[in-house]
Amino acid sequence: MNAENQQTLETLQDIKRIMERSSRFISLSGLSGIAAGICALIGAWFAYKELGPYYVRYDYRGEYAGEDFQQLKFRLLVIAVAVLAAALASAFYFTWRKARHNKLPVWDLTAKRLTINMLIPLIAGGLFILAMYQYNEWKFISPACLIFYGLALVNASKYTLTDVRYLGLLQILLGLINTQFPESGLYFWAAGFGLLHIIYGFVMWWKYEKNA
What we know:
This protein is mainly α. It contains seven helices and no strands.
């Protein structure tokens, strides 16, 4: 390849990178996925420790009731909020670090579009899940978490890396399978938000950040 062709190729690559930066948010870090997965697994472990003693006293009619159950609901909600806060904080930190390394803005028009498209399914799903929490409809809380989160990822993927779409589809599939095994909701939740995030984060880091 002569010098002129090499220069043309480099120019085309520069144009491609500029177009990607203007239409897609490319500062998502694989390390944020790994960190979120670790937070989810820790949260699932704490939830398991809370649920274990309650299941020993599980009502023979198969119903949740009593003051113990209200305390359990509150503790599980605290765990869920703590996991969400830790995951968001780690995601912001690693995204900010990658954006700074690449000399890109963290908050621009593409980031706003990504956030809006992700928040619409997340807010709708969150309100739906809170309603199930309110009325003690526990069987499908875990599937709903996975499905709505997957829909949010798929909806937002057109404004970021394509790999996010595949993670969203896997979350949706896992949530649908979970509907057939509602008694194992915590395990599916840990697999989706924990293991899948860690695997996805490692793949993203290997593809886009390892040699950066």
